[in-house]
Give the backbone structure.
Amino acid sequence: MKREILTRLQSLRQEKQSVALVTRLHDGIQAFVTEDLVEGELSLMDDTITTIRQRISEDLSGVIFEADIKIFVRVYSTPLRLILIGAVHVSQALIPMATLLGFEVTVIDPRSSFASDERFPDVTMMTDWPDEAIRKLKPDPHTAVVTLTHDPKLDDPALKEVLPTNAFYIGSLGSKRTHASRLERLRAEGIDDETLSRVHAPVGLHLGGRRPAEIALSIMAEIIQTLRLTA
């Protein structure tokens, strides 16, 4: 790999972008493709760019064809991430499960009495207001976001911010009645029903669990199901 190509690839990955390095096999001409840009000497047709972006979302490298020309797509995906809104008991149980499954976990909670190093040692914590933190973290197709506080002042702004993104999973803790009220508030904010249907609520697979660890297990199971079977 040429030095300038490697340098640019490292730069894009440091920006937390999933990127494909695309190489035309018969002459080695290359380009980068991300969700937002196409950059490089290799000119690509719109249909080919769409196919490459789909492969990025699926984390799928391999050979594709543009007409009868072979092109190799090497996908460099961002890490799997789990963003938790609320430094609560369920979060404490979710973190080790998600970490074991390869997720980078961030907990967002502006309440200092909840978001303490004593309660969450060795965890990336953000004490920003949830919508501000979501904007900074920029959820992508490898990101799951779960709201856990039961507090509309925290959960609703997070949902409003994350729903327009392409996070692969969005979930919210709460009963059916709680979620119905949540939907009404978000509709009042101008969010349409198709967008709201992205929210998994009540969150998690129905396993019958009630304790924090059991609820965490059901949430993690639904995240993996969505990632592997429907994302």
